[in-house]
Structure formats: C-alpha cells, structure tokens
Amino acid sequence: xxxxxxxxxxxxxxxxxxxxxxGASGFTFSDYGMHWVRQAPGxxxxxxxxxxxxxxNIYYVDSVKGRFTIxxxxxxxxxxxxxxxxRAEDTAVYYCAKDGAFGGGDGMDVWGQGTTxxxxx
Amino acid sequence: xxxxxxxxxxxxxxxxxxxxxxxxASQTISRDLNWYQQKPGKAPNLLISAASxxxxxxxxxxxxxxSGTDFTLTISSLQPEDFATYYCQQTFxxxxxxxxxxxxxxx
Lengths: 121, 107
What we know:
The structure holds 2 protein chains of 2 kinds. By secondary structure, chain A is mainly beta. Chain A has strands at residues 3-7, 10-12, 18-25, 34-39, 45-51, 58-60, 68-73, 78-83, 92-99, 108-111, 115-119. In chain A, strands 2, 4, 5, 6, 9, 10 and 11 form a 7-stranded mixed β-sheet that branches. Chain A has a 4-stranded antiparallel β-sheet with strand order 1-3-8-7, with no helix packed on it. By secondary structure, chain B is mainly β. In chain B, the strands form 2 sheets. In chain B, strands 2, 4, 5, 6, 9, 10 and 11 form a 7-stranded mixed β-sheet that branches. Chain B has a 4-stranded antiparallel β-sheet with strand order 1-3-8-7, with no helix packed on it. In chain B, a hairpin with a 2-residue loop joins strand 7 (62-67) and strand 8. The radius of gyration of chain B is 13 Å and the shape is globular. Chains A and B meet through strand 5 and strand 10 of A and strand 4, strand 5, strand 9 and strand 10 of B.
C-alpha cells in the first residue's frame, strides 16, 4: 500500500546537525512533489520545505532557509531533510508528505507517521 | 507570505450538530485551499482539496466552499469520530502556509 516512513529523529544539542529520511513505497515516487511539515509540541502544523518531482524547484519557510536542505533520490524512493545549526525552536515532530501533483500545488494526500527531533543541551 | 487565519480556534459541539469553520487568507488564493483533520498523536489527514473536492473515503457530511480569500469547512452532522483539530492550508503560493487550527471538542 501507499506508505511513507520517516527515520533519523533524535535528541541533538543546539548547533549540531541531523539528517531525516523518508522512504516511500506503493506509488511512483518520482512523479510527485514532496514536503516536510513539522509540529512543535502542543502547537499547530508548520510547513518546512517542498521539492518538486525532479528536484528542479525547492522552497523553504524563512525560519529554516540557509540551515535546512531538502533533497531526494528518486532511484532510492527516498526524501531527505538535512538540518544544520539546529535551534531549540526546531524541536518538533517532523512529517514527510506526498503532494498530489508533480510540484507543491496540490493537497498533501499521504503522510508519514512522523519522527521526533528534540534540540536540547 | 500568505497568512491563513482560522476561526474559531476552538469550539464545543454535540453529536449531530452542524459545525462550520472558517479560514481567511491575507490575499486572494483562488481556490487553492485544502482542509485537514488531525487526531491526537496522529498525522494529519487530507479531507478536502481545491476548496471543495472531497477526498476518496471521506464521509459526505464534510463539505468545503469558498474562493478568493474566504473559505468554509462544514460538518453537517457531527459524529463522535469527528472530534479532532482541523487545519486549512493554502497552496496558491509555493511557500505553503497552514492556518492555526480549530479544535473541535465534545460539549
């Protein structure tokens, strides 16, 4: 069945780095845009980044620009989020989500279960 | 960036009630508006895309309307499984934004 599985979360000190992965199955990964969305404890949803089906277009929320990098490997059906210079305010559950279109202009119709990132000394 | 404002932020309702949640965009977004339901500890679930297109498997008691800057999610007859938090989201801009959420609680 259609599935997204995130991994790579954990506890990390401020200023350090972490890389999240999201493995996709059950659909043609290379046909769809992919997003990262996060949710801080007790807070609402915050979109983080999107990458188009072929990696040709990438966009970030301002708060992570220059620190986070979204990428994908279509040969491995995997989405990544490289997070550098982590801050306490990056603490959240991180979800990967599939867009309904090749870019990022449709609804997010498949979500992973989420992976928790805690930034703390 | 396009700001999305949802109201109310929370509401209490009874089973069988008609519930309406509104979402306002800070600029026109055509019909590029989606609605999600999220239950505690779970990932969000897409209910409605393009303002009014019901996703497969979503009960028909859910409906969406609106265009431009003002949008509405309606639950025609609230069921026990509908108690959750609902989010609107715009995809008009490549910088996607969510509303702050509306928590629907049991009265």
